[in-house]
Amino acid sequence: xxxxxxxxxxxxxxxxxxxxxxxxxxxxxxxxxxxxxxxxxxxxxxxxxxxxxxxxxxxxxxxxxxxxxxxxxxxxxxxxxxx
Length: 83
Known about the structure:
Largest sheet: 3 strands, mixed
Strand order of the largest sheet: 1-2-3
Helix content: 40-55%
Radius of gyration: 18 Å
């Protein structure tokens, strides 16, 4: 994964946005990662990002992980066996 400093990004946003079409680019400020630059290849890609970032979806994932840690989850292998 590539990295770019915040200053470099500010100086040439177009260049790095184009570069992010191939892979995500980590944005670094004062040696610390502060963000990620990601291009969307199509509307489905953008929709997936919005879904994964939605607070309701994230809460459901958090609760599901907690239940799984308590032994109340369903393993993926068990789901696949029932298909």
